[in-house]
Amino acid sequence: MAGRLYTAARSNLSEFGMAGSHPPWCHPRWCAVADSPPGPHLSAPTGLILDDHATVTAVVQLEQHPPYGDHRPVPTLRVDLHEPDADDGVGYQLVLRPDHARGLAHMLQAAARQAAE
Question: CA gyration radius for the chain?
């Protein structure tokens, strides 16, 4: 069935010794800040199957790199389109600031409403 949504379970960061220096949405299973070299904070992924054959999936995660120097990165939304024919399984990746993600969501909803008329 196209349009099925899945979400990984949320966790309590304090159980993993991660409270304080991580955004509240950061998930210990995906967080890469402690890696060498440090990677981004990542939320649990949320995915949506986009076709009737369950082969194309959109996966969304919040992502924020740790601060460096005077730079304080803001969270972004990472959208991965997974396709079985792509070499690494990810056919396309889009990284959006929250305001751009809201704008894109508005455009998609408006187009979907028009298509349903």
Answer: 16
Number of independent structural domains in the chain: 1
Q: Give per-residue pLDDT as tens, 60-111.
A: 999 998 888 888 888 999 998 888 776 766 788 899 999 999 999 999 999 9
Q: How many CB atoms lie within 10 A of CB 40?
A: 20
Q: What is the rounded CA–CA span in Å between residue 62 and residue 98?
A: 9
The helix (run of H) or strand (run of E) holding residue 47 is strand 46-49
Report yes or no: 45 and 59 within 8 Å, Cβ to Cβ. yes
- Domain span including residue 67: 5-116
Is residue 26 within 8 Å of 32, Cβ to Cβ?
no
pTM score, two decimals?
0.72
